[in-house]
């Protein structure tokens, strides 16, 4: 399962932003202050929640914000954020299950040899290639 589409409205530096990732790997790049971190924080908020008050994600001057993530399995996750908190159309159990599938233990990763690291990275990115082919 992958993200088929991301749309954020009134979140941090974006009034409206929409992205449809490519088939393989999508890289978000740009100059400082263009909203790259806003996109990452939006995804983190949807899948893992925030350790700080989510109302801080709302764009200055706006009363609420929304993050919509469409997945390739047909599910759509909508998260609405206002000053009183946030609400999602999916249960926390469902979101935790999805987030855990993206999980990576950094200490475990650091202890792996190069071949194991490459294999894991290819698996996480859903790239079907042998390390020797890269």
Topology record:
Layout: E1 3-11, E2 14-19, H1 36-48, E3 64-71, E4 76-82, E5 85-88, H2 92-101, H3 106-111, H4 114-124
Antiparallel strand pairs: 1-2, 1-3, 3-4, 4-5
What this model shows, in words?
The chain has 134 residues and is of the alpha+beta class. 30% of the residues lie in helices and 25% in strands. It has 4 helices and 5 strands. It has helices spanning 36-48, 92-101, 106-111, 114-124, and strands at 3-11, 14-19, 64-71, 76-82, 85-88. It has a 5-stranded antiparallel beta sheet, with helices on one face. The chain is globular.
User: On the 0-100 scale, what is the average pLDDT?
Assistant: 80
What share of residues is helical? 25-40%
- Total strands: the figure is 5
Based on the structure, what is the oligomeric state of the protein chains?
single chain
- Output the structural class: alpha+beta
| Unreliable residue stretches | none
Strand ordering within the main sheet: 2-1-3-4-5
Radius of gyration, CA atoms, in whole angstroms: 17 Å
Determine the N-to-C terminus distance: 23 Å
Task: Record keyword descriptors for this entry.
134 residues; alpha+beta; 5-stranded antiparallel sheet; 5 strands; 30% helix
Summarize the structure.
With 134 residues, the chain is of the alpha+beta class. Helix content is 30%, strand content 25%. The protein contains four helices and five strands.
């Amino acid at each position: 399962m992958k993200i088929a589409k991301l749309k954020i409205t009134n979140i941090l530096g974006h009034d409206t932003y929409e992205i449809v990732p490519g088939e393989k790997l999508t890289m978000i790049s740009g100059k400082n202050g263009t909203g790259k971190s806003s996109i990452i924080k939006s995804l983190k908020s949807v899948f893992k929640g925030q350790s700080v008050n989510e109302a801080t994600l709302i764009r200055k001057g706006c009363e609420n914000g929304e993050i919509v993530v469409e997945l390739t399995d047909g599910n759509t996750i909508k998260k609405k954020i206002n000053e009183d908190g946030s609400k999602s159309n999916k249960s926390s159990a469902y979101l935790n299950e999805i987030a855990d599938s993206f999980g990576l233990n950094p200490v475990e990763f650091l202890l792996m040899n190069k071949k194991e690291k490459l294999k894991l990275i290819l698996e996480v990115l859903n790239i079907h290639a042998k390390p020797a082919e890269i």
